[in-house]
């Protein structure tokens, strides 16, 4: 019979080898610590446009205003995702590359660190005199005492016995430094994941709520809101909130305490809660925060036909003294009950400033105290077309300036008129605006941020890792009992550590009480500068 020879193994195509080599080379480059630092710097630089230009996720109104102010530049910036920086492809690419780089850098180091923790401490060189610290003891050192001292001071120790009778204790300390480094870099991953989860799954809504008013948790009832990329209105929990009472305390012209008594109702429960700053109400995993307060002016407008409208209008504070600005708009007025006709060009609006504490003994309009001691309204009246029917969004805290500039609104009074509570401002057509009083409102923020706990865990890991990474030093210490009866000690620092000699002297004195080892003479072949 003739033997059949097996065919030679087929070599892999050169193209596959080149591809593997290319991938391996770029993977090592991507997972290096230098690349991670460069990507972290790139991420910080990429976030600059997000703080320079208005973002749609924060305020679409500001973005629309930027388009109005820069009609030529804004479209070009929009094509570069300047108004959606944190969801842009280029920002996401840097973000993902940084996470991959950190994970690829940390996982191999974890394996190396785990092996180092389980490995035996390396033995000392045969000539211990070449180490930066070296002493020859003039008294006998007890091995049991040496073992006890090293264990008490938490040195990881390996004992070696040679055939010639030499006994060496090899001790090591400072692995917590590398543990701290790994925790520090892991904390960055936690923070990146937390920020990503928060960006995708978090949402918030701001609401100004006056006393004895209520609202329910849906987007139409928020003054301002923002939704994550993976959140829509159906994701919001269902609840309603009522502000029963609000109280603000002031000391030396500044607020010291906000207290809001609220009632909440969900599909499963209802109850009352004392809402305070930094003490949010939690409803179905959503936190309701009290973040501010302001004043609501109550006025009654009586048109020339005697018909009245009462309006509760919130005002926005302009300064710390709570001098606030707002507007009253009455589009549905001047209806003649006899003829049934409505003068569509006789709408009425008032620009107003609410002064909580007015001092009529001075020429200054604005007050210096935020408390309601002598509230007044400073009014400027307009008649004409308020522009409410043109379909364009506008501020509820000011009369439309475009309508004023175009002449569709005409100013009635030449000078600002100041009225107090109970007083009325009379218009030339016989209509009046009466100042009925002032109420308080609370500024509430409803927020759900699932990424917050992840970021908090990352911050704790960062602090827990940074301290040992900065404070702990890696060092080694050896004790050798030679066959001739001499005992040597030696030490080596693995990092910059100025206290090596002092620590080794202290260990030597504890192991061999009464010994006074002379300082070692410096040797030309010392490896201290090489380690």
UniProtKB/TrEMBL annotation:
Signal peptide: none
Pfam families: ResB (PF05140)
Membrane-spanning segments: 90-110, 182-204, 454-472
Domain spans labelled ResB-like: 33-504
Topology of the protein relative to the lipid bilayer: Multi-pass membrane protein
Main location: membrane
Keyword terms of this UniProt record: Cytochrome c-type biogenesis, Membrane, Transmembrane, Transmembrane helix
Region Disordered, residue ranges: 510-531
Subcellular location: Membrane
InterPro entries in UniProt: Cyt_c_bgen_Ccs1/CcsB/ResB, ResB-like_domain
Protein name: Cytochrome c biogenesis protein ResB
């Amino acid at each position: 019979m003739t033997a059949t020879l097996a065919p030679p193994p087929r070599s892999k195509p050169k193209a596959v080898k080149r591809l593997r080599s290319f991938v391996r080379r770029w993977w090592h480059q991507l997972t290096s610590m230098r690349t991670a630092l460069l990507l972290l710097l790139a991420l910080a630089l990429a976030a600059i446009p997000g703080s320079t230009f208005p973002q749609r996720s924060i305020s679409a109104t500001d973005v629309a205003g930027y388009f109005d102010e820069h009609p030529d530049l804004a479209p070009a910036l929009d094509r570069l995702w300047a108004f959606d920086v944190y969801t842009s492809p280029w920002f996401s690419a840097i973000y993902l590359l940084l996470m991959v780089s950190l994970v690829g850098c940390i996982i191999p180091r974890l394996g190396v660190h785990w092996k180092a923790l389980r490995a035996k401490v390396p033995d000392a060189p045969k000539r211990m005199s070449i180490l930066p610290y070296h002493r020859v003891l003039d008294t006998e050192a007890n091995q049991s005492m040496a073992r006890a001292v090293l264990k008490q001071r938490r040195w990881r120790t390996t004992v070696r016995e040679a055939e010639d009778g030499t006994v060496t204790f090899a001790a090591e300390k400072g692995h917590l430094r590398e543990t701290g480094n790994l925790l520090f870099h892991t904390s960055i991953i936690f923070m990146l994941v937390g920020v990503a989860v928060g960006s995708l799954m978090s949402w918030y809504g701001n609401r100004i709520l006056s006393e004895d008013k209520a609202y329910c948790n849906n987007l139409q009832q928020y003054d301002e809101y923002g939704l994550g990329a993976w959140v829509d209105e159906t994701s919001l929990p269902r609840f309603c909130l009522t502000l029963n009472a609000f109280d603000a305390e002031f000391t030396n012209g500044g607020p010291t305490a906000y207290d809001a008594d609220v009632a909440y109702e969900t599909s499963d429960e209802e109850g009352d809660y004392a809402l305070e700053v930094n003490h949010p109400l939690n409803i179905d995993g959503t936190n309701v925060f009290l973040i501010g307060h302001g004043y609501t002016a109550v006025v009654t407008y009586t048109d020339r036909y005697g018909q009245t409208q009462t309006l509760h209008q919130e005002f926005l504070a302009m300064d710390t003294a709570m001098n606030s600005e707002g507007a009253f708009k009455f589009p549905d007025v001047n209806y003649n009950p006899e003829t049934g006709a409505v003068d569509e060009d006789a709408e009425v609006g008032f620009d107003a400033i609410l002064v909580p504490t007015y001092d009529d003994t001075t020429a200054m309009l604005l007050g210096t105290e935020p408390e309601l001691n002598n509230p007044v309204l400073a009014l400027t009246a307009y008649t004409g077309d308020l522009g409410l029917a043109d379909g364009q969004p506008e501020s509820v805290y000011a009369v439309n300036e475009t309508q004023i500039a175009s002449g569709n609104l005409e100013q009635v009074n030449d000078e600002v008129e100041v009225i107090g509570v109970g007083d009325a401002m009379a218009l030339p057509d016989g209509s009046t605006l009466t100042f009925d009083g002032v109420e308080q409102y609370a500024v509430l923020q409803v927020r759900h941020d699932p990424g917050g706990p992840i970021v908090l865990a990352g911050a704790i890991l960062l602090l827990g890792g940074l301290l040992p990474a900065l404070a702990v030093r890696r060092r080694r210490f050896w004790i050798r009992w030679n066959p001739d009866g001499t005992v040597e000690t030696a030490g080596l620092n693995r990092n910059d550590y100025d206290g090596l000699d002092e620590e080794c002297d202290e260990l030597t004195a504890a192991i061999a009480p009464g010994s006074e080892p002379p300082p070692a003479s410096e040797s030309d072949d010392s490896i201290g500068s090489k380690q």
